[in-house]
Structures are given as C-alpha cells and as structure tokens.
Specification:
The complex is a heterodimer of chains A (about 425) and B (about 280). Helix content of chain A is about 30%, strand content about 40%. Chain A has about 425 residues and is an alpha+beta fold. Helix content of chain B is about 75%, strand content about 0%. Chain B has 9 helices and no strands. In chain B, helix 3 packs antiparallel against helix 4 and helix 6 runs parallel beside helix 8. Chain B is flat and about 55 Å long. Chains A and B meet through helix 1, helix 6, strand 8, strand 11 and helix 7 of A and helix 6 and helix 7 of B.
C-alpha cells in the first residue's frame, strides 16, 4: 500500500517538476535559472529516469510477485482444500439432506467435494481465481515492460524519395534502453514514394509510404501508413506524421559549387507557408519558404519556394526558385535542381511485446472476475433429525446476502 | 443526407437532454420526496432518453464518419450514454442500485448540457486516430467513467443516508449495501481505467512507435489509476469502509474528472490535438 502511495507521489511529482528537454523546463531555466540548476543538481529534473523511480518500480514488481504467491495459496485453499467455516450465516432445517442439496444446486452451486461429512458446494468458483489472475497479469506486464524498456531501440530517419538508407543508417535520432545495442537494418532500404492525403479543411488525413528493402539481390516492397506499421524480421517500420518537400539546391560562391538538400515541412494549409533553414559552410544560412502553388485548389501540387541568404543580422532580398534557373541571393548563386518529397520513418526493435499484451489481458480478465462475480460456498451436513446449512460469501457479502435468506426461507430453516 | 443528419444531431441531443432532465426530476421526487410511484416513470423517461440519444449518436457517426471520440461534444455525449446504459444494464441485476438514478440521470443531463454548450462542430480525424486499440482505449475509458460515476453515486448516497436517519431517503438501500456497491463499482472503474490506459499505450505504440511518453494525460491517468488502487487496497487490507472510504472514492472520482476533462487541455499534450 505504501509503495502505491510512493509511486503515485513520484509520478505526480515527476509531472509537477518540469522534465529536462521539455518546453516547460526551458521556460524554467529562463525564468529561474537558480531553481532549474538546483533541481538538476538534485536529479529532480528527470524523476522518471532516476534510479529512485527504477527502485520503486522494482519494489512494486517484487510486491506484486509476493501478492501473486499469496493469492495462489488462497485460491488453492478455497477451491480444493475443504474446511468447514465458522460462519454466522448458518441455519438448520428439518428437510432431508438430499432435498437441501437439491435446493442449493438450484441456486447454481456446483459440487466441490466432501469434508467431515459435509457436502461442499461453490457458486461462481471461477471468481476465486480473479485475484490470482490479476496479480499474475501485473507481474507479467511489469516484467515484460521492464524487458521492453530495457531492450528497445528506436531510430528515426528523414528520407527523400529515391534515397537509400544503408544498414548502419545515418539516423536523425537514435535512442534505446540500457541493454540495447545500436540499431542496424537487415538490409539497405529506399523510400520509393510517399503520398500524403488531406481533409477538405487542409488537415492531414493520412500518409502512405512505400519502402523498398534490398536483400540478397531481391527487392521487397513494404507499405506503411500512420498507425499501420509493418513488422519485418525483428524490426517494426512506422510512418511518422512528418512529411514535406525536399529541394535539391546547387549553391555556388566564388566559382565553388556545392549540392545541398533542404527538407521543408508540407505547408500547414493552402494559405500558409512552411519554413526551413539550411546552414552553409560559411556560417550563413539559406532561409527557405515553401507554399502551395498559386492555384491552391488542393494541398497536393507543385510547391513554390523562395529563398534568401542570412548572415548575422544581414538579410538578402527574397528570390523565387525555378528548376534550372540560378538566382543570386546575397553573395551566393542558388539553383533549384529538383523537387522531391520527404517523410520521416521510425524503425523500432524490441522484445517482449507479446508477453506484455498477454499481461494486459490477464489483468483485464482478473479484474472482471473479481468485481463481476461474488463467489460463495455452502456446506451441507445431515443428521437423523436435522440438516445443517453453512453459507459464506468470499466477497461482496452485502450484495448477495439475499440469496442466503431466500435459501433459508425455501427450506424453512432456523437461524443458529 | 450528411447535412440533414448533421442538422438533426444537435436537435436529437437536445431532446435527449430534456428527457434525461425529466427522468432526473422524477427520480429525485421518487427517492427524496418518497413518491415511489414515480420511480417506474423515471425509468421509462430514461429509456426514452437513451433511445433518442442512441439515434443522435448513430446519426452523427454516419454523418461525420467516425465514432463519438474526437470533439468534446462527442466525448461528453458518449460518456453520458455509456453511464446511463451501463446503469440500466447493471440495475437489471443489482436491483438495489436503482435508487442511484438520483445521481446518474442528473449527471447525464449535466454532461449533455455541457456538450451542447461547447457546440457540435465537426472535427476531422488526424491520421493517428484509427484502429481497434483506439476504439478499445476510448470505450474502456467511457466504461470507467460510467462505473466510477455509479460508484461515487453510491458513496454520496451513503454519506447522505448515514446523516439522515429520519427516513428522508427511505427508498435508498441501507448504508452497508451502498458501501458494498461503491466498492464493487469502484473496483470495476479501476479495472476499466487500467484497461483503457493499457489499450491507449498499445495504440500509442502503433501510432507513434512508443508506449508511454509521460504526456500530461498519460501521467495523470496513471496517478488516477494508482489512486483507485490505493482505495481498493485501503478497503481490502486496512478494512476501510463507510464514510472514510466514501470520501476517498469521491476524491478519486474528482481526480478522474480532472484527468479526463482538464489535463487534455494542457499545452503539449497529444490529446489536446482533438479535445481543445
């Protein structure tokens, strides 16, 4: 119980204190650098990644495992080891045992065994297993969660159409658990096409990308969409929601030309431009602004792009780029060589997902068994003159006590 | 056809809200005013409201092409529908819980009213909004809210009944029974909330390639689930019952409301994309 409280407090605290790398943390660093520094020194700027949080989670796992063993003992005892309880809900009746048993069974009680001359009957005995199933599910889900988090590796790449990503890919970003190794693709892959679709109000509806995987001189085509990843081998390929236009530029200065690739996000709507900056070796920046063409009848079309040169506070005039036509922006000549599309894909490698899902289902069915059922038992013992009926509910007694009263009235029993 | 259905939808919602209001008034008169004869009429109006509400939800679903889980209007409407439908279904078995109508029907009216106030504008689905796990995610949160509402209704009635021994709430079950109902429905809320959260994690895994990102909604959803776990443990292992347990459950419910309806408005939340 204390562990639940500690975990709950840590999670709440982890939210209240801005986490490192977030916008809130950035604002705190600007507004109160001393406090931000103090929090960082105390390790409070990343509670979820802290050793304390990991220890608490580990203790929760141990506690859940202990509770699982405890629950297993209880359910075994209640289902298979029959012991006549001392219950206040006991009555005697003149009816013969056979008649009493028939009445009990008419209430959907199942015969469980005999002990010390008492017949033992259970109703909804499967409900007894709910606690065990819930705790097994918790242990399985927590254990698998630790495995997944520890071994998962995730890498992100922005690919232009036709671009090939080699197995030791140049990832835009790569991260993983402490037990994970760098992500290496099974084979080179290329982006064959990427096609965004939009709603009539210009919002993004879906992105469909086709990847080609080159393996052993063979080509395999894989289609991915947002929320529809593809698992291939040990890797899962996801379509991210980032998409845009790639402008291949030739930038020349003092007779020296270099090829530059500028990935600009897709314009957010027909009336708004999108922007991207590309750094040059000189320390200057090419600022690109992309918008949909003048007709603007849909979100799909040939993008118009303009460029300017920026160095420090100096800004050149804006120039419109047309394929094959060089324009001067500041000291450099810029030529648009080609326009392609780009999109972002995510590649993930992990282990234990199936086990994790199995844990979820156990938790669900365990919870349903606990709270949707009220298992109870009846012991029936007969003598020459009377039959004793002992009734007990294992939980939610108040909800089912009516059944005991009904049984007693049916058999005209006398409370003991 | 689509335009007609879209125009019909808020009118049907308004009719359903009025019917919930009548059902609520009759339930209060039946339970608090001790006019038992009104109780069946309250249920009849609730059934009628539920039927109109069902048609309204289906009409909107057909018109906009997605289930009731994108805009605030849709989410509140679905929460009200699930709460009432769940209540009617469970009281077929737990007859003692019928008097909780004094809590459920007004809550449905309130949810519908706020939903109508926010407006029935149509929002289109972002690309991440698809798949069975999203459906399970929202469905289980609706179920969690419905069961938590029933549980907190039992707790509130417990507190009122325990403080009014003069028989003003004669139609309400005895306090121990209300206490047991609160425990049971609180447990179901815990289970449904947990499954909703886990289904959401699986959905996030398919949509963004990660299970958990400590998003404000995710974080407070976990805190809420742990709070319900705390409530259940206090009852099970520390024998908390009665008023103490009722107050703790009410606190859990308020936390759940905050998580469901307010944390998604926080900047930077993935959920803010659709719920703002």
């Amino acid at each position: 119980m204390a562990l639940i409280f500690v975990l709950m407090s840590l999670v709440a605290l982890g939210y209240v204190i801005p986490r490192q790398g977030t916008a809130r943390a950035g604002r705190l660093a600007l507004e109160s650098p001393e406090l931000a520094s103090l929090l960082a020194t105390l390790g409070l700027d990343d509670i979820f990644g802290s050793a304390v949080f990991a220890v608490v989670l580990a203790l929760v796992l141990v506690a859940a495992a202990a509770a699982m063993v405890h629950q297993a003992r209880i359910v075994w005892r209640r289902t298979f080891r029959h012991a006549v309880p001392r219950s206040q809900t006991t009555f005697t009746t003149d009816r013969p045992p056979a008649e009493v048993v028939a009445a009990v069974r008419s209430h959907r009680y199942l015969f469980a065994g005999t002990v010390l001359g008492h017949g033992h009957y259970l109703r909804q005995p499967w409900g007894l297993w709910g606690g065990l199933l819930l705790h097994v599910g918790l242990v399985v889900a927590l254990g698998a969660g630790v495995l997944v988090i520890g071994t998962e590796r995730r890498a992100v790449a922005d690919l232009a159409v036709g671009e090939v990503l080699e197995p030791q890919g140049m990832w835009l970003y790569e991260a993983g658990g402490r037990l994970s190794s760098p992500l290496v693709l099974d084979a080179p892959l290329a982006l064959e096409s990427t096609d965004p679709t939009f709603w009539p109000n210009d919002e993004l509806r879906q992105i469909l990308s086709v990847l080609v995987i080159f393996e052993d001189a063979a080509e395999e085509t894989v289609t991915i969409e947002v929320n529809r990843p593809v698992r291939r081998g040990g890797l899962v390929y996801y379509q991210d929601q980032a998409v845009g236009h790639t402008f291949l530029l030739e930038v020349a200065r003092d007779g020296v030309a270099e090829r530059i690739r500028a990935d600009v996000p897709w314009p957010p709507d027909r009336a708004t431009s999108s922007h991207a900056d590309v750094a040059l070796e000189t320390g200057a920046v090419l600022q690109l602004r992309s918008s949909l063409d003048d007709s603007a009848v849909s979100m799909i079309g040939v993008p118009a792009v303009v460029v300017r040169h920026a160095l420090g506070e100096e800004r050149s005039e804006v120039a419109t780029l047309t394929v094959g036509v060089p324009v001067m922006v500041g000291p450099v000549s810029v030529t648009l060589v080609d326009t392609l599309r780009w999109t972002r894909i995510i590649v993930v490698r992990n282990h234990g997902i199936g086990v994790l899902f199995a844990g979820f289902f156990m938790i669900f069915f365990g919870s349903v068994l606990i709270y949707m059922t009220a298992p109870r038992e009846v012991y029936v013992a007969g003598s020459e003159t009377e039959t004793v009926v002992i009734w007990r509910a294992f939980r939610f007694r108040e909800s089912v006590i009516e059944e005991y009263e009904t049984l007693r009235q049916e058999l005209q029993g006398r409370e003991r | 056809m689509t335009v007609e259905l879209l125009m019909l939808d808020p009118r049907l919602h308004l009719v359903a809200a009025v019917l919930y209001g009548i059902a609520a008034a009759l339930a209060v008169l039946a339970v608090v005013g001790r006019r038992d004869a009104l109780s069946p009429w309250s249920r009849r109006f609730a059934y009628l409201a539920l039927a109109v509400h069902t048609v309204a939800i289906i009409a909107r679903w057909v018109a906009v092409g997605h289930g009731p889980y994108v805009s605030r209007y849709e989410v509140l409407s679905a929460n009200a529908w699930v709460a009432v439908a769940l209540f009617e279904a469970t009281t077929m078995r737990f007859r003692a819980a019928r008097s909780l109508a004094v809590f459920i029907y007004p809550s449905a009216l309130l949810l519908m009213g706020i939903g109508l106030y926010t407006g029935p504008e149509v929002e289109l689905l972002p690309p991440t909004f698809s798949g069975i796990w999203l459906a399970l995610h929202v469905a289980f949160y609706f179920l969690a809210f419905g069961t938590a509402l029933t549980a907190v209704g039992a707790s509130v009635l417990y507190l009122l009944k325990a403080r009014s021994p003069d028989g003003r709430l004669a139609g309400v079950p005895e306090p121990p029974e209300l206490d047991a109902l609160a425990y049971r429905f609180g447990g179901l809320a815990f289970a449904f909330w947990g499954i909703g959260m886990l289904a959401g994690a699986i959905w996030a895994y398919y949509a963004w390639g990660r299970f958990w990102g400590w998003d404000p909604v995710e974080t407070w959803s976990l805190v809420t689930w742990l709070a319900f776990a705390l409530y259940l443990h206090m009852r099970r292992f520390y024998a908390w019952k009665g008023a103490r347990a009722a107050y703790l459950l009410i606190a859990c419910f308020l936390l759940a409301d905050g998580t469901l309806f307010f944390t998604s408005l926080i900047d930077g939340s993935l959920h803010a994309v659709y719920f703002r």
